[in-house]
Each structure stands twice: as C-alpha cells, then as structure tokens.
Specification:
The chain is of the alpha+beta class. It is built from 35 helices and 31 strands.
C-alpha cells in the first residue's frame, strides 16, 4: 500500500488512521494512527528521504532524583529477550551502517531513536530497538555497571576505600559540576515545586545510590508499556510493512493498560521567589564574575499552540538578536558578560516558561539585574515593537521552518524534537510544524490591538509565578560534597560484616569476569561487506569563473534557501594577523560597517537572512601530513527572494567593516570568553586531544592555537583588557580585512536548486565587481610549530577527567591509512569500551583516526580514572600488536567505518563538504580508492600498523582534569610526571 493512500478511519495491522495532513513547507505528509487494542500512538512523516528514521518513546515522569529514568535508558540497551547478550546497543554500532543510533532521557520522556539508509540495516535495528524497549533483561549486574554500585577502590581488596561506581553516577558527577547544566536543573526545582520537573531525571549524584534494582524494574513495568508509548517514523519507507512489524513484534503481546503518566499543570505561586544555589569551584580559583543569575516566569499549557507561537515570537522580539531590546539592555548594562544559559522561551515540557538573565556576574548584582529586566519589559510594553521588527521575527520563523538541516542529527529527528512536547502531553503535534492558522490569528491581533505589549504585561509583568535564581561558585563545596560522600561510605563500611565485605569482593569479581567474557553474538543481526556501496555518489557541481574568481555551483534540494560561501586564502597575512584570525572571525559579523552600526546590521540580518557566519578553515593536504591549507570563510543563507539583500549585507561586511566601536568589541569578547569556558566541560576530550596533537604536527599545532585551549586563553586575555586598550586590536582587525578581502584570495560556492541559480549569479557578479582585485602573494604557511611537552596536565575546575593520547601517522593517500582507520574502530569496540567504560566507569572510552590529519587518538570522557586509563592505553597497544583479531570483529569495524563515511548530509551540507574537498584536493578518485582499501583491510595489516605507529611511533599525552587529580597522578608518575598548565 502506498503511504499516500492512507485515509482517516482506515484500519491496517491493528492500527486505525486518525488523521492525514499535508505539510507543504517541509514537503511531507503527516499520518497519525493509534493501535486499537493497546492505544499506542504512531506518527509517520512521509517524505522523499532515504534516511529512514524510527523512534519509540515513553512518558517517564520521575518521582525523585535517583536518575531512574536515565539509568533505565542505559540498562534497557544491555540485552533483551531475543538478544540476550551483554551490550547489543554497542555491538550493533559496529554491525550496522546506521546514520544515527542513540537513546535520550528528557525531563518527562525517554526516547530510543535510530536511522539508516540501508533497508536491511533499518530492519535489523528495528528488531534490536523494539526488543530492548519492551523486553529488556534488566539484570542486576547491568544495573550495577550502568547505574551505581558499592565497590572497593581495588575491587578485590577490602582494605581499600569503599567507593560508589557506575557509568551514570560518574556521568552525572560531571554534568552536575557544570554551571550551565546546574543552572537549568536548579531553576526547574524552584519553578516547578509541585510537579515532576522539580526532580532531576538524569539523577543527582548524592541521590543515585538510593535507587534499588527492583525500583528500576518497577519503573520499566509501569511506564514502558504500549499504552504509554509514542512511535515515530519518517522517510520514504513502507509504512504498512512497518506497522505490521511493530504489531507482530510487540503489540500483540500486550493488552491495554490503564496507567497514569500524565504530568499535571504546575500550581501557581502566590508571590515571586528568590533563591540562591551554589556550584563547586576548585580552591584557589577566583570567584569574581563567576556567578549566574536567571529570572524565569511560568507560562502556559504546552498544548495551547496559539500561546506557544505567540510566546516564541515574543521571545524572538525581546532576545532574537543584539538589537532586540532585552538582549541589548542586558549586554549594555555591564552587569554580566553574556546571556545566561537557557535565556528564552521553553515549550518542550507540560507547562512552558520564559527566562532571561546573565552569566559572568557577581552575587551583589542580583537586584540590579532583576530591576533591569523588569524595567526593560515595562518600557517595551509601553513603547511596543515596530512593524519591521515583527516582520523580521516572522521571517526568521518562516526560515527556520523551511530550512532542511541534518548534518549533526537526522533532519527527521529534529522535526520530532519540535513536536514531541505537545504530542506526548496530549496536544496537537501538527501545530508545531504547520502554524499558518495560528500565525494569521496573531497577525490579525497585532493589526487590531497592542498584542505583544499585552502579552508582556499578562504573561510576564503581572505574572506572580516568577523565580529569580542566583547560582554562585563555592570553593569549599566540592570538598564538602566529597567529605559527605566519604562519611556516608565510611558509615556503610563500618556496618558491613566480614561476610558482606567478601560479598562485595565477589560481586566485583563477577562483574569483571562478565565484562571480560567473550560472548557469542551470533543472535545479533548483521550486515555483510557486500552490503556496502563500493563507490561514493558524486555531488554534482558546475565550475565557472566569475570575474576571474573560481565559483562552484551545487544544485541541491534546499527548499528555496540559498547558501553562499566566500572562502578567502590567507596569503600575505603577518604572523600576528594569522594568530588573531579566529578573533576576527568571531567579531566580523558582530560589529557594524561604515553604513550601519552593529544594531542596524543585526536587525538587517534577521530581516532578510537565516544568518551570516564567519569561521577559520584548516584543510590537510591528502598527500602530505606536513602541509595544510588555511582559509577564512564568510557564509550566508537566505530565502531565494532575499538573494539580493543577502549579497548587499555580505558586500558591506567585506568592504567596510567597522571595528572602531571599542565598547562593542569588549562586550563581544566577554560573551565569547564565557561561551568558550562553558564549552570546556562539555568537550573536554576534544580540547585535551587538540593539546596532545599540538606537539605532533604543524596542522595539529595550528588547530590547537585556533580552536583549542590556547584560543580560550587568548580570548580571556583580550576580554580582560579595558575598553580603551582594545584600540590596537581594532587596528589589527581592520588590517586583516584589508589584506584578506580581495578577488585574488577568493573562491566561492553557492548551493541552491538549479532553477534558482540565475538570481544568485547576478548578485554574485555584482559583489565581485566591487571587490578589490588584490595582488598574488606567496602561499607559504605563516604558522611555525612551537615545541610543546609530550605529556601535559591541563588544569580545569572539574570533578572528572578527560584522558587522551595521540599518535602521529600518515597522510590520507598513504597505503596504511585505511588500516589505521579500521584499527581505531576495532580498538574502541573490542578493548577501550570494555576497559574504560564498563570496567573503569567512564561515560566513554574511544579511539579515532583522522585520516586527513594523520593523527590517531585514544580518549576518555567524564572519566573517574586517570592513571588507570593511561595504563589501559598501553594495554590496548599491546593487545593490537598481538594481532589476535577475530575475522568477524574486523568485518564489523569496517562496517562501522562506512557507517561514518556514508552518513547523509543536509542539502546545504552536501555542497559545503564537496566545496571543501575541491579546495583540499581530495578527489573522488582518492575517496573511492580509500573505500577499496578499507574493504581489503585484514588482520596482518592491522597488526603491522599497530606496531609501527602505536607501539613504535611518536605520541603525546594530555589530560584535562582538576588540580587535585593531576597532583595526585604526578605523585605516582614520578619521572614521567605530566607538565601542568593552568588555562
């Protein structure tokens, strides 16, 4: 049956079709059904998309902060009735060509999504996911590994200290030390005092040990039932076939269950609330400008689509760009460095809320920040918004609804995230994707009355359900928390009998034995190497010369949105200009021009574009690891009807950027500092790996300078300058623009539907006519490698560690590159995952080979271990050099490599990637030759490259951790101590 033939009232495989709706803005049809017996809900988005997505979700509101929903999400993927192996989820990562596999826990729902472009693979994963969700084993051993357990520091030594261990436990220790994450959790606690959102669904580290295995099983029995399920699929798949499988595999085994998982609307506060919370900061760290302040108002029911859209537009009007009144007032005040995380409107939970605040502030500024926000809202309510600003906010809404994204996550999953809030709470999910009727009502009200002004008064100013939260650092808190945990563990240990102590030792041994046991995975479905496409599909491109500038035209189904990339080489830049290029990239789109100040530029960009972005680019030579091409790229995107205005703005930025507003530079640099510092705990493994790579290659050193901790340090240094002292920087930035923005340095790319090429060609030609010709200069790389320590300890205030070791290897076209790529997958799946995550308790243990930079990495993420992990890396090398690789493991690792290689791109992403390939000299022949070499990798090649590059090659270590952890490690490392560096 064709999906387009579904009609309301139709019965198929136990489901009844409820509604069929066209979604022309995203070229899709939404089909909604329910299962007659169990009441399970099913939604399908019928789209011309080969990347088929499936997800099953459950409403899972927790009653406490033990992390039961989160731990269940982990444990459900540790084996099921049909697939009774220890870790089918991670096993399938290497037996699949998936384009996405994951699971996620939100405040009130849990979701299990996957996608694949291979039909056989899609059905394999469908079997795994359905069985994991509805029929998991949930063994006590898996609960203790993934959730929490009591265990001696040395598992078989009852004289060593007793500890809490577990993957989720350590994950949440890291998450709850991050001020951004903590701000969100603490705000929920006070804004929702009577409903489930007051609890931390991920788990509070101090509460997680209170969860019992039986409580986990009870939670699954209560909530993971078809009567409490939401199924979602998307793509050009056969819906009838999919419904039949879901019915057969799951739904026929259940009856309808009358369960109550609904989340009630939050009860209203009678008066505003002010609260203070704290987060841990390492002793000796400065406390100034480290606090966060946020004010939040409880709003309305997520099921009121009109209210949601109105508040979304109001949020855009107040905060959508630097010229928006509340955004401008907060940043101009000097009371903080940047907007607080979570600033804006949140409509993904039962009762929505609006928040605004500042980070990089001090506790004594709370009153001033609160007064500023309230007075600004009063002023806006009195003065209103201009029609032009309202039109700009509506334009941005239209743009975001039409843009086909999906380079980081499948586009269909992003669509699901937009509608899951109202859908899972009983509202109309259609309104999240098709809002024309609500928008028309809003426009009518705006024409007839002060609509947004009244919204500010009714929903914010006169709303007594308001929470003002101060989150401030405390250099004693971490030690106090550790001491409380130690006291709790000591008390437990004192009460243990000798028999109970031996039982703990025995359980630790049993877990270790199970983790090391070689399992028979034959019950798991798999693919064969013959299922892999032998050739990459070429991205069509037209190359032309426009005013002597190379221009590449990519015809892609962008849904009426054009993407323009202007890429400039760096010839002629001085070493100092080269160093400051990322700063230039960050500031160019945030300042004004000779025609408009930064506020006018911000308003213009919102009115006619989907954004203008600047970045540095570094592409490795595929034939020589000692060479790379660095460039600067300015990229803009717009609806086709706004092609000319987009190019006009790009031309202004290129020809007349104005860096003379030193106060603006100061403000943006402080914003950037806070943003970068917030990114470190989230991406600690990446920062550590970049630091390690910096001592191994010129491109590695340059990447670290531009996007590593060195860049964080540079931005800190600049942000600390007075406004007046930034005059020298302004002159430097102007000089970079003058040197860079010439025709001789430029290559361009345009991605849009072929029928929309003509207006972009006209606009591009006009821009190029105004661009100076420029002189051809030496193309030599300015950067020079600065010697660095091969063993670094990078100090950051975090309670967990990020441990990396990086090895230098070979260029992309070298014959060994393919084997190194496969070896990384093999090490991750067959050794590091078990040793670092399962046994070591880290959230992640990984290996990766960047075949373009020629760098091989081993990494850990949110790791309670440090020295042990470094030892594991040595053991991993010995394991690989021994060369005892099962043939199935090699095949699976090759499959995993191709799963990464063939991940689908968004239309714009396809053009961007091919543009990079063309600039890099990465030809289609090279890429297809690599595919053939990957398919031919064998055990002998794997053993040989392990010995040559890992055992006997050059490597570097970098560990990002707290000061105490690094000091303790160095005491044991002795002569091999890490060179400590405070960022």
């Amino acid at each position: 049956m064709s999906n387009c033939k579904f009609s309301p009232g139709q019965s198929i495989h136990g489901f009844i079709v409820d509604q069929v709706d066209a979604l022309p803005a995203i070229n899709a049809t939404m089909i909604r059904l329910h299962h007659q017996v169990t009441g399970a809900r099913f939604m399908h988005l019928d789209r011309d998309d080969d990347n088929h997505l499936f997800a099953v979700g459950f409403r899972t509101p927790p009653d406490d902060s033990t992390g039961v929903a989160h731990i269940l999400e982990h444990t459900a993927l540790c084996g099921s009735e049909r697939f009774p192996v220890r870790d089918p989820f991670f096993s399938m990562l290497k037996r699949s060509l998936n384009s996405f596999m994951n699971a996620m826990t939100a405040s009130d729902w849990t979701l299990y999504p996957f996608s694949s472009m291979n039909r056989k693979d899609f059905h394999n994963l469908l079997d795994i996911y359905l069985d994991a969700a509805f029929f998991p084993r949930l063994t006590e051993r898996d609960f203790s590994q993934e959730g929490h357990r009591l265990e001696y520091a040395v598992g078989d030594d009852p004289t060593s200290p007793l500890e809490y261990k577990g993957v989720v436990y350590n994950e949440m220790k890291g998450a709850m030390s991050d001020p951004s994450s903590l701000l969100s959790r603490r705000l929920d606690k006070h804004l929702y005092p009577t409903t489930t959102y007051r609890h931390n669904s991920g788990g509070e580290p101090e509460d997680i040990p209170a969860l019992s295995w039986q409580e986990l099983r009870d939670f699954h029995a209560r909530y993971y039932h078809p009567s409490n399920s939401w199924f979602f699929s998307s793509g050009n798949l056969d819906l009838s076939e999919l419904l039949a499988i879901v019915e057969d595999r799951v739904l026929t085994k259940f009856d309808r269950l009358d369960l109550d998982s609904e989340v009630p609307v939050e009860q209203r506060l009678d008066a505003p609330l002010k609260v203070t919370e704290k987060y841990p900061l390492d002793a000796g760290e400065p406390l100034e400008k480290r606090s966060l302040v946020e004010i939040a108002w409880l709003d309305g029911d997520v099921n009121d689509s009109f209210e949601r859209l109105a508040m979304s537009l109001l949020s855009a009007l107040l905060l959508g760009n630097p010229a928006a009144p509340l955004y401008k007032a907060l940043l101009d005040s000097g009371l903080g460095a940047n907007l607080a995380p979570g600033t804006g409107y949140h409509d993904d939970i039962r009762t929505t809320y609006f928040a605004a605040g500042l980070q990089g502030t001090d506790p004594e500024q709370v009153e001033a920040i609160e007064t500023l926000i309230l007075e600004t809202l009063e002023q806006v309510a009195a003065e209103g918004f201009s029609p032009e600003r309202i039109d700009a906010a509506i334009h941005r809404l239209e743009f975001s609804n039409r843009e086909v994204t999906g380079d980081s996550y499948p586009y269909s999953l992003l669509l699901l995230m937009r509608l899951i809030g109202p859908w899972i709470h009983g509202g109309d999910p259609l309104a999240a994707l098709k809002f024309e009727d609500d928008l028309q009502k809003i426009q009518q009200k705006v024409a007839a009355e002060p609509f947004f002004e009244n919204l500010i008064r009714n929903r914010l100013l006169n709303n007594q359900h308001r929470v003002t939260l101060l989150l401030q650092p405390d250099t004693d808190l971490g030690a106090q928390q550790d001491a409380a945990t130690r006291a709790e563990l000591d008390k437990i240990e004192q009460q243990l009998s000798d028999t109970e102590k031996q039982q703990l030792v025995a359980r630790a041994k049993e877990l270790q034995t199970a983790q090391e046991e070689e399992e028979d995975l034959s019950c798991l479905p798999t693919l064969e190497l013959s299922d892999i496409p032998t050739h990459e599909v070429a991205v069509p491109v037209e190359q032309q010369l426009e005013a002597s500038v190379k221009t590449f035209w990519f015809a892609q189904p962008t849904n009426g949105i054009g993407v323009v990339a202007l890429n400039f080489g760096l010839q002629g830049l001085t070493a100092e200009q080269y160093k400051y290029l990322p700063v230039f990239s960050s500031l160019l789109t945030q300042v004004g021009t000779s025609q408009r100040d930064y506020l006018q530029m911000a308003e213009a960009m919102e009115a006619v574009t989907g954004g203008i972005f600047a970045r540095t680019s570094l592409l490795d030579d595929p034939q020589d690891v000692d060479k790379f091409a660095a460039s600067f790229e300015l990229k803009g995107k717009a609806l086709v009807r706004n092609c000319q205005p987009l190019f006009a703005l790009l031309q202004e930025m290129l020809l007349s950027p104005d860096f003379s507003d030193l106060q603006r530079l100061h403000t943006v640099l402080n914003q950037l500092q806070v943003s970068l510092e917030n990114s470190v705990p989230q991406s600690g493994h990446t920062y550590a790996a970049r630091a390690a790579a910096a001592s191994l290659s010129l491109s590695g050193w340059q990447r670290e300078q531009w996007s590593g901790l060195s860049q964080v340090a540079l931005i800190r240094e600049l942000a600390a300058k007075s406004v007046e002292d930034l005059a020298e920087l302004a002159t430097l930035l102007k000089g970079i623009a003058t040197q860079l923005f010439t025709q001789s340095q430029l290559q361009t790319a345009v991605t849009v539907e072929a029928e929309n090429f003509p207006p972009f060609k006209v606009a591009l030609r006009q821009l190029l006519e105004h661009l100076p010709a420029g002189a051809t200069t030496d193309n030599a790389t300015v950067a020079t490698l600065t010697p660095q320590s091969a063993s670094q300890g990078l100090l950051w205030s975090i309670p967990v560690n990020y441990v990396t070791r990086v090895f230098s290897a070979v260029a992309y076209t070298h014959p060994d590159s393919a084997a190194l790529t496969v070896l990384a997958k093999l090490l991750r799946s067959e050794f590091l995952h078990r040793e670092i995550r399962e046994k070591g308790g880290a959230y992640g243990g990984m290996a990766g080979y960047n075949s373009e930079s020629g760098l091989f990495s081993m990494l850990s993420y949110r790791d309670p271990q440090l020295l042990r992990t470094l030892q594991v890396y040595d053991q991993a090398i010995d394991w690989a050099v021994a060369g005892d690789f099962p043939a199935d493991s090699i095949k699976e690792s090759i499959l995993a490599v191709f799963g990464d290689l063939d991940k689908p791109h968004s239309p714009a992403g396809a053009g961007a990637d091919e543009f990079a390939n063309l600039r890099q000299g990465m030809t289609l022949d090279m890429r297809n030759r690599m595919r053939q070499q990957l398919l031919a990798v064998d055990a002998e090649a794997l053993q040989r490259v392990a010995e040559k590059y890992l055992k006997n090659g050059e490597s570097s270590v970098a560990v990002l951790a707290g000061e105490a952890a690094l000091q303790q490690a160095n005491e044991q490392l002795g002569a091999q101590a890490l060179e400590l560096r405070k960022i």
